[in-house]
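Worked problem 6 (solution included).
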Amino acid sequence: FRNSHGKGVVLMTLSRSSPNLDQLRGIMARKGGLQRANRFEVYIDNPAIGLLDWWCHSVTLPGRSLDGIPDELTAQGGNPRNIPIRRGYGGEPTALLSMYVDQNWDVREYFEKWMDSFNPVGKDQGSNAGVLELSGSYQKLISGSSVSIVFVDTKGNETGNNVKWGMELIEAYPTMIIQEQFSNEMINQFGMLNVSIGFKEYRTNQF
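Solution. The predicted structure is:
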């Protein structure tokens, strides 16, 4: 059918009118195929701590929404429409990262040090040992931090993977190191670290 601008719009459903297999292959080929769920890379950098050189097992991308308020002024009846007033993030404005824990616990300490830049507990042997620094600086927490999530295709070459799409978190910082269970019964399992990364906004890039 045609939209309000007079342009044709194609909507595909899994009905009897769906394109045949060859047509679907052609459509997917024009778009470079389908994105593999495991073809992603995460880059985390904090100038005060350095680049996190560790593999990310899984990532959960934030959602996207338009937050609105009911239009009570012009509403007729009891079902007012919602008027968008600001951009939102479809629930929690965080990205969730899951990583294996190394035996040196370097990956855990990376996020511990990052979060300590806000209100650390004194570690010296002097009078401030164990004392919580109540004042925290948001600017120090986010200063220069960089978190980027990129998705790559299945081709690649000798120079690396071909990045297709990416998300950059603006003013990124760890909001929570999520509690994780360790047990004597988990003989053949590896320790996991789950961290939620908060942000002010995000940008996406299509390459």
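Discussion: The radius of gyration is 23 Å.
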